[in-house]
Amino acid sequence: MSIYSNTQQKIAEKISSDRHVLASKWTDWHWQLKHSITQVETFEELLDIQLEPLERRKIELTLKKFPLSLTPYYLSLIDRNDFRNDPIFRQSFPDPQELIIERADMFDPLAEDRDSPAPGITHRYPDRVLFHVSNVCAMYCRHCTRKRKVGKPGMVIDDRTIAQRRADLLAAWLTTNAPSNFWTADDRSPSCILLIEIEYSEGRLL
């Protein structure tokens, strides 16, 4: 079975060493993330377009601060014949205007760092906790409110030992600070920490 559109098929065959990439590969999120587009040159090659030299230089400067990443699937949705006005392109591709910082701009617009009592946690409301387990997304949106953290190596959890250490740290914090209705009724363990540990043990978050 071939991939769902001619555009997707062409992109997949440019990426893969296989002559014919089947739909089973294209629909595999591991394959999609592994082949995420992070370079301007790759973007141009896969969509068969050419940016203006000055435009490319400005984009490269933007990438030094705010990285690019989108999966082949998202790339395939971009209209290559009018890509500059395409909504997926504008959502995913670096814009030099991102480097313009105005007085009204906020470093942490959701005040997550202010409400972070421990690494990887935002605790704003008494009965819930937000876990930042990774900064890897299928696509780095240009309007993201966490752009200060997206793609930064210190935020990425790509090692099981580090992941387990962070899970233990979060569990320790919850043991002391979580409200009673946060815990499961049977074993008094934080349900979300159990979920995180299960996900890591099965390799789904790595």
List its traits.
2% strand; mainly alpha; 2 strands; 206 residues; disordered C terminus; two-stranded antiparallel ribbon
Describe this structure in words.
The chain is mostly helical and 206 residues long. It folds into 2 domains: 6-99, no CATH class; 121-134 and 154-201, no CATH class. It contains 9 helices and 2 strands, in the order H-H-H-H-H-H-H-E-E-H-H. It has a two-stranded antiparallel ribbon. Strand 1 (121-122) and strand 2 (130-131) form a beta hairpin. Helix 8 packs antiparallel against helix 9. The longest helix is centred in the last third of the chain and has 18 residues, at 160-177. It is globular, with a radius of gyration of 20 Å. The protein starts with 5 loop residues before the first helix and ends in a 5-residue tail after the last helix.
Strand-helix topology:
Elements (H helix, E strand, L loop, with lengths): L5 H10 L7 H4 L2 H6 L5 H8 L5 H11 L8 H5 L10 H6 L28 E2 L7 E2 L28 H18 L13 H11 L5
Antiparallel strand pairs: 1-2
Helix pairs in contact: 8-9
Which residues form runs of ≥5 with pLDDT under 50? 185-206
Total domains = 2
What is the residue-averaged pLDDT? Answer: 77
Q: Strands across the major sheet, in which order?
A: 1-2
Element string (H = helix, E = strand) = HHHHHHHEEHH
Shape estimate = globular
Give the fraction of residues assigned to helices. Answer: 25-40%
Radius of gyration over C-alpha positions, nearest whole angstrom: 20 Å
Strand content: under 5%
What structural category do the secondary elements indicate? mainly alpha
Number of β-strand runs = 2
What is the makeup of the main sheet? 2 strands, antiparallel
Total helical segments? 9
Measured distance between first and last alpha carbons: 28 Å
